[in-house]
Specification:
The protein is mainly β. It has one domain: 3 Solenoid (Pectate Lyase C-like), CATH 2.160.20. Helix content is about 0%, strand content about 50%. The strands form 4 sheets. It has a 24-stranded mixed β-sheet that branches. It has a two-stranded antiparallel sheet with strand order 6-7. Strand 6 and strand 7 form a beta hairpin. The N and C termini lie far apart (about 50 Å).
Length: about 260
């Protein structure tokens, strides 16, 4: 059982388990180590973690989004996380969590994501094959997130920011997704005030699977929030767009 502030090194092997971290300062370091779903997945439907590889779990009111206790300064690095039906790595109510040099492949919803969190650092990871977003920061009005030097491809969204404010998206490669980088504000909103700097966003031309919106041919950077970001030095491929305004789940979107 880990104690607050412990560093745990996991060397080699394939481990079939879901890991929940609720103590401050825990550092998990993987070396040539893979995590896959357990043979008997957790059945606690009350946990927001669902079936995930790693879940950093504070105390959050899921109805209001208020965190009564943040889990602080957790770091997860160097793991390969595959085939989880929900999340590869997820944080709920985390402060200053760091997810670094992990590889998240073919996870059902999101590769690496943070909700109701602030100060999240998502750095130098590889995410691919997520049914939804490779990297996602959501429901975080004080996000102050940094998404940097990641490679995200083969997802629906490469990087998704939803209902989150303040942060930096820099030096990432987002390619071969349906949409490279996307901002959306719906209830409760808002989203934006991110600097988007020096990213390479191209070849996001996959035909997006039908969801709650018309099928589309993909785009490089898009937003439902005009002026959501300041973009400097980001190389993007301008993709074809429908002749009429499109929407996803009722959100108007704008190509940049």
């Amino acid at each position: 059982m880990a104690k607050p502030g412990d560093t745990i090194r996991v060397i080699g092997g394939v481990h079939h388990e879901s890991v929940v971290i609720s103590k401050n300062g825990v550092a998990l370091q993987g070396h040539d180590t893979s995590l896959k779903p357990p043979a008997n997945p957790p059945t606690d439907t009350s946990s927001p973690c669902e079936v995930s590889g790693f879940c950093v779990l504070g105390e959050v009111n899921s109805h209001t989004g208020e965190a009564s206790r943040y889990v602080k300064n957790v770091s997860i690095s160097g793991f390969t996380i595959r085939n989880f039906p929900n999340y590869g790595i997820v944080a709920f109510g985390a402060q200053n969590a760091e997810f670094v040099t992990n590889r998240a492949y073919n996870n059902g919803e999101y590769g690496i994501t943070a909700f109701f969190s602030k100060g999240t650092q998502i750095l130098a990871n590889l995410t691919s094959g997520s049914d939804d977003a490779g990297i996602y920061v959501g429901d975080s009005p004080h996000a102050n997130a940094t998404i940097a030097s990641n490679n995200t491809y083969g997802n629906f969204w490469g990087v998704l920011v939803r209902n989150a404010l303040h942060g930096r998206i820099t030096g990432n490669e987002a390619h071969n997704n349906c949409v490279g980088i996307f901002f959306v504000a719906d209830a409760p909103g808002p989203a934006g005030e991110f600097d988007v700097l020096g990213n390479t966003v191209n070849k996001n031309t996959r035909a997006c699977p039908a969801r709650e919106a018309p099928r589309s041919r993909g785009s490089a950077l898009a937003s439902s929030v005009p002026g959501a970001w300041r973009s400097v030095g980001t190389t993007s491929s301008r993709m074809s767009r429908p002749d009429t305004p499109s929407s996803r789940a009722g959100w108007p979107w704008f190509e940049v």
